[in-house]
Write a structure and sequence with these properties.
Dihydrodipicolinate Reductase, domain 2; Rossmann fold; 9 helices
Length: 325
């Protein structure tokens, strides 16, 4: 492989625009092609972000021999189908979260990537943010002693629109899969797999959760108190409580520019801004793996995605949420 990574983008919604914008910040990246079911939409997107090719089908993009890796930005329910299409053609994949709709899908995607010996990663950009690296640095130094609990929320108010992706059950709508994943991600990173999961939710007329509250128990007595909602604007902050202090990820914690260490009634504030919109850090991490010939990233290994979906499936079971996919 050359020292340039040639990207394709599959699905050209809101998040694809953000990703393509940050892709242009990388000296290593080339936006080789973009695909939409509408050629006009693909052509407009290609013009805006200087892509070399525009495709009117996902299949055509995947078959292009000049594309090294595909960023999948389609709705949740399509991630499995789209990822498997790419892997079948030996294209590396960075797939937006959640990687799949349930554990079986994630397992099959991982098995396929390993069989094809190609790179696969769930696009949890938070893991590569400077603020998150700072949090992990503080935890590794035992800056707050032994961890007691984690508390995190993610909520914004949006009107109920049955046709919206957020509320469409067939597309994987609901707060849990869309934003509840971030508090769960934090708890899994910090505390590992819970021993017991309790959860409750409120549902919309379309059968997806508009609010989800979660309580995770751990074998050594630690707790995680997590929440996601489309009903109200919440602080969207995260706290890690320890025996000697507290670490706070400021609003919005999944893309924070500020981290606080609170000890002995004193707050030390760390300004750790991300570059661009924030996706550039994830992009460069993927580039490093691709150029080194690795098929997964050590900071976000495939085993982590398996554990994350295992937890999400248990939360879905606890609140009685089922998807038809």
């Amino acid at each position: 492989m050359s020292q340039k990574i040639r990207w394709g983008i599959l699905g050209l919604g809101k998040i694809a625009h953000k990703f393509a914008s940050d892709l242009q910040l990388s000296d290593t990246a080339i936006l080789q092609g973009v695909a939409s079911r509408s050629l006009e939409k693909a052509s407009d997107f290609a013009t805006t972000y200087h892509a070399k090719k525009a495709f009117s089908s996902y299949e055509a993009l995947v078959k292009d021999e000049e594309i090294d890796i595909v960023y999948i930005a389609t709705p949740h329910a399509l991630h499995f189908e789209n990822t498997m299409l790419c892997l079948q053609h030996k294209k590396a994949v960075l797939c937006e979260k959640p990687l799949g709709m349930h554990l079986t899908e994630v397992q099959q995607m991982i098995e396929k990537s390993k069989a094809q010996n190609v790179f696969l990663m769930e696009a949890i950009w938070t893991r590569f943010m400077p603020s998150y690296q700072k949090v992990l640095e503080l935890l590794n130094k035992k800056a707050i002693g032994e961890i007691i609990s984690v508390r995190a929320d993610f909520g914004f108010q949006t009107p109920f629109q049955p046709e919206s992706r957020l509320f469409d059950k067939k597309l994987g709508g609901g707060s849990l899969l869309d934003i509840g994943l971030y508090p769960i991600f934090l708890s899994l990173t910090v505390l590992g797999m819970p021993s017991n999961i309790k959860a409750s939710a409120r549902f919309t007329k379309t059968g997806v959760d508009s609010f989800c509250a979660m309580l995770f128990d751990y074998e050594n007595g630690q707790k995680a108190v997590l929440e996601s909602t489309f009903e109200v604007d919440t602080p969207t902050e995260a706290y890690i409580f320890g025996t000697k202090g507290v670490i706070k990820l400021h609003r919005r914690f999944h893309e924070a520019n500020t981290v606080s260490l609170i000890k002995n009634n004193k707050e030390t504030v760390f300004e750790v801004p991300h570059a661009g919109i924030g996706y550039i850090h994830e992009i460069e991490a993927v580039h490093a793996c691709m150029l080194a010939g690795k098929t997964e990233h050590p900071k976000l290994p495939l085993e982590f995605s398996l554990q994350l979906m295992t937890i999400i499936d248990k939360v879905k079971s606890a609140i009685g949420l089922q998807y038809i996919v």
